[in-house]
Every structure is written in C-alpha cells, then in structure tokens.
Design brief:
Length: 344
C-alpha cells in the first residue's frame, strides 16, 4: 500500500508538472483528489490493514494528498499568471496613436441670435417671458384687436386644433397674457422669444414653423421716440455702430400708429445693390404704439398708460447677418450648415 501511494504521488507530481492549461489541471485535481480519485480508492482498502499499520498509512496518505494539493495550487497560480501576462501583451494600447475626435454639438444659430437679443434687452431692464405654443383663439387673435371675421385672420392662415385652440401664429399672445397678469399696473417690460406656426408651403422664404421675438414696454408716457431709440440701439447692437435706421408708416391691427424699420445697407453703403434691391435700405422688423383696444382688453387704462411693441424674425436677422439665402437651412439640420455657426 505504501508503494502504491508513493507511485501515485510520483505520477501525480509528474503530470502536474507537464500540464499546459487550467482545464487539464482541473481534470488532474479530480483524478487524484476527487471523491472517486486514486487516493480515495487506496484509503478504501485501509480496513484490511493491521492496527499498527493503519495510522502510518493514514498519515502517509494525508501527507501525499497535501503534497499533491500544494503542487496543484502552485501550478494553477503559475498558469493564471502566464495567462494574465499573455493577455497584457496582446492588449497593449499604443497611447501615441491619434485619438478619434468626439463630435461635439453646439447651440443652433437661431438660439444664438435669440440669446444675443435677450442679452441686450435684459441689460435694459426687460424680462424674458414665455408662454404656450398651443394657444386659445382669444389670446392669439381676439386680445390683439383681431376680432372674428377680421381680414388679418385670413392673412395668417393658421393651424387650428379645435374651434378655440390653434398653434400660435405669433408670440404676441404671451405679451397679452403677461399684461393681464399685471392687473392694470405698469410698467410691463418684456421680451418674448419662441416658436410660431403658420399654414404656409415651405420655400426659400417661408416656413410653416419659425421663430419670433417680440418686445413690449407699457408704462406712463411711453412715446414713439422711446420706440425709435430702442430700435436704433437694437439695430446697432446686431449689425454695427455704423448702421442707420429709418421708420416707414405701416399697418398692424395691434398697433397704432404702426411702423416698419429699415436698416441702412452696408454692402453698398446706401448706393444700392442686390441685397437692398437698389434702395440702400433693408427691411428688418415691424413695430408701433400699442393699440388702445389692446391695452384696454388687457386691463390697462389707455388714458393713463401707453406702450410700444415690436416684432422680428430671428431667421431674417440671421439671414441678413450671414448671407443665408434659404430659410429651410435652419430646419433641415445639415451639420455642414449648423457647424459653421457653432458657439459654446
Ligand atoms: C412683424 C411685426 C409686430 C407687435 C408685433 C404687439 C404685441 C402686443 C401689442 C402690440 Cl401684445 N403689438 N406686437 C407689434 C408690431 C409688430 O410684429 O413683422 N413681426 C415679424
């Protein structure tokens, strides 16, 4: 029995030494130490031994099992280390290779124009006001002196949701709502940027969805000269100190009198070119003094209060500033277009 155990030990150590992978090593562990392993088989025959021999053989069997266990463990550690070494070698990263640049997004050109205009007006004490894009007929039309049947309602073909609800056609309803909240007390000094919707067929100069910024200043003694000074500051801020403005009479249902503002053409210095269509002036926005009906409907005493309002299209501003010739560029979102105007 002694010899049998010794030869098991020698054979096991030999095989463990020769093993090349952990799967084979695991098989050897089962072969020698498992429930049906060779050592166990030998120990089963212990019953036939004499009383004196039993502890000696038992001790030997234990020692041999310990020796085999240790050999197995040592080998396993060696194999694992080699595997790790191999993996590290294969997965070495060349940190000197150039990286793949991450595509970083930026804010949209229109958001840049809107933020710039917000910055100017907040610096002059205005607050930014926002409101719903799905609007009631009342705030979108009625409260702005556009009663049912008014021809200007046809001028702005709208997306109706129900008889009473529609996608707002301008940001003016935000101003009407804000005036209402003031309960007849001035000043109201706000700027309202946002998306608006019209039932137009998209082409180079029309989009069924576009943006607008409107401004409103209601207080005692607000006059045309306040409007003109404000618009002059806006034009110079957006297009440069060397620009002049002029106001032409116009018509809007919610203002009286109404004006349109032109900005002097820089391309030709007033000589006349294709940008200004030979006039030396470029149309930029519409404005006027708030119609007394609009003030009264919003709860303001039109004998005591007056105000000015103006509205402009950020798309138009951006097109003039950057020579963009098709409004659809703002909404087709071709990155080659967008990237040219990325700001942080
Ligand atoms: C344009 C012209 C304009 C207004 C908008 C306004 C709002 C209230 C009262 C009176 Cl609550 N007026 N807004 C006034 C004049 C012109 O927009 O051509 N926008 C692109």
């Amino acid at each position: 029995m002694k010899e049998r155990l010794q030869s098991i030990k020698e054979e096991a150590l030999q095989q463990i030494d020769e093993v090349k992978d952990s799967k084979a090593l695991q098989d050897l562990r089962v072969k020698y130490l498992g429930k049906k392993g060779q050592i166990t088989e030998v120990l089963k025959g212990m019953g036939k031994l004499s009383k004196e021999e039993r502890p000696v053989i038992g001790q030997l069997a234990n020692d041999i099992r310990d020796a085999i266990t240790e050999a197995l463990d040592t080998k396993q550690a060696t194999l694992e280390e080699a595997a790790l070494e191999q993996q590290l070698k294969e997965e070495t990263i060349d940190v000197t290779l150039p990286g793949k640049p991450a595509q970083v997004g930026g804010s949209h050109l229109l958001m840049g124009v809107i933020r710039d205009i917000e910055d100017l007006f907040t610096s002059m004490g205005y607050e930014v006001a926002e409101g719903p894009e799905v609007e009631t007929d009342y705030y979108n039309f009625e409260a702005l002196n556009l009663p049912k049947g008014h021809p200007a309602r046809d001028m702005q073909d709208s997306f109706y949701i129900t008889e009473e609800l529609l996608m707002r056609t301008h940001t003016s309803p935000v101003q009407a709502r804000t005036m209402n909240q003031h309960e007849g007390r001035g000043p109201v000094k706000i700027i309202c940027p946002g998306k608006v919707y019209r039932r137009d067929t998209d082409d180079a100069t029309h989009s069924h969805q576009f943006t607008q910024i409107e401004g409103l200043y209601v207080d005692e003694n607000i006059r045309m000269s306040d409007l003109k000074g404000t618009l002059n500051a806006l034009a110079k801020y957006l297009f440069g100190e060397d620009r002049d403005i002029r106001l032409r009479p116009s018509y809007f249902p919610f203002t009286e009198p109404s004006v349109e503002m032109d900005i002097s053409c820089k391309m030709c210095g007033g000589e006349g070119c294709s940008v200004c269509k030979q006039t030396g002036w470029i149309e930029m926005l519409g404005a006027g003094l708030v119609h007394p009906n609009v003030l009264e409907m919003a709860g303001f005493d039109s004998e005591r209060y007056s105000g000015f309002a103006f509205g402009m299209g950020p798309e138009r501003i951006a097109m003039l500033k950057h020579g963009i010739e098709d409004i659809r560029h703002f909404y087709t979102n071709d990155v080659r277009f967008l990237k040219q105007f990325h700001r942080v």
